[in-house]
């Protein structure tokens, strides 16, 4: 049996009761044995400052780059702030894309899930993030799209997804994401 694909999960919310963190943890528990989903924390990353690269990058940047760089794929789970991604997630993207020519993102297959209590499920953040990912040369899973609305009513007390339709959809999303990683593995290993 092939070893599981290592997937770095980045959650764009730092809030203790974050719906996005709940979704990421629920997905981790739902994933097949061939996907190893691991949260990579981004809240402790100092703001990106090019003056520190490449000679004296903060230890947090070095560790973040190492972890994401070693993964086979990335799953972004984010809320929407002002029709875009939260600043903490944008900072993580910037930290991983530098120094120039040493991006940890390049050719790494990825997926985007936006989670919100609102009706449109973070549509603006989802699409704004996709714009950055195209520039970063990351093949982004196109279908199914995952805009998860009504997040304030989706989770049981234990953090699992209590809405049967959402749970079924997220299971299908994970299956499609696993196939997407496999389809793009040749691209990742060829670089």
Describe the protein's topology.
Elements: E1 5-11, H1 19-30, E2 35-39, H2 59-70, E3 73-78, H3 87-97, E4 110-115, H4 123-135, E5 146-148, H5 164-190
Parallel strand pairs: 1-2, 1-3, 3-4, 4-5
| Estimated structural class | alpha/beta
Q: Outline, from the CA principal axes?
A: globular
Share of residues in helices: 25-40%
The first-to-last residue Cα distance is 24 Å
- Rg computed from alpha carbons, rounded to a whole number of angstroms: 16 Å
Number of helical elements: 5
Number of strands: 5
User: Numbering strands along the chain, what is their spatial order in the largest sheet?
Assistant: 2-1-3-4-5
Integer average pLDDT: 94
Order of helices and strands: EHEHEHEHEH
What is the fold named in CATH at topology level? Rossmann fold
Number of domains: 1
The CATH architecture comes to 3-Layer(aba) Sandwich
Low-confidence stretches: none
Explain what the structure shows.
- This protein has 191 residues and is of the alpha/beta class.
- It has one domain (5-185): Rossmann fold (3-Layer(aba) Sandwich), CATH 3.40.50.
- Helix content is 39%, strand content 14%.
- It is built from five helices and five strands.
- Strands 2-1-3-4-5 form a five-stranded parallel sheet, sandwiched between helices.
- The longest helix has 27 residues, at 164-190.
- It is globular and about 50 Å long.
Can you summarize this structure?
With 191 residues, the chain is of the alpha/beta class.
Q: Main attributes?
A:
single chain, 191 residues, alpha/beta, Rossmann fold, 5-stranded parallel β-sheet, 5 strands
């Amino acid at each position: 049996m092939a070893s599981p694909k290592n997937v770095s999960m980045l959650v764009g919310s730092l809030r203790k009761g974050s719906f996005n963190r709940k979704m990421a943890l629920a997905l981790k528990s739902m994933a097949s044995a061939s996907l190893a989903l691991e949260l990579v924390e981004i809240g402790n990353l100092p703001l990106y400052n090019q003056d520190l690269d490449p000679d004296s990058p903060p230890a947090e940047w070095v560790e973040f780059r190492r972890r994401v760089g070693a993964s086979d794929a990335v799953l972004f789970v984010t809320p929407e702030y002002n029709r875009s991604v939260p600043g903490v997630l944008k900072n993580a993207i910037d930290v991983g894309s530098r120094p120039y020519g040493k991006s940890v993102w390049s050719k790494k297959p990825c997926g985007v899930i936006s989670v919100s209590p609102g009706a449109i499920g973070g549509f603006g953040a989802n699409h704004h993030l996709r714009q950055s990912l195209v520039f970063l040369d990351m093949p982004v899973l196109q279908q199914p799209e995952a805009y998860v609305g009504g997040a304030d009513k989706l989770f049981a007390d234990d953090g699992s997804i209590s809405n049967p339709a959402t749970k079924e959809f997220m299971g299908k999303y994970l299956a499609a994401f696993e196939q997407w990683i496999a389809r793009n593995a040749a691209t990742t290993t060829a670089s």
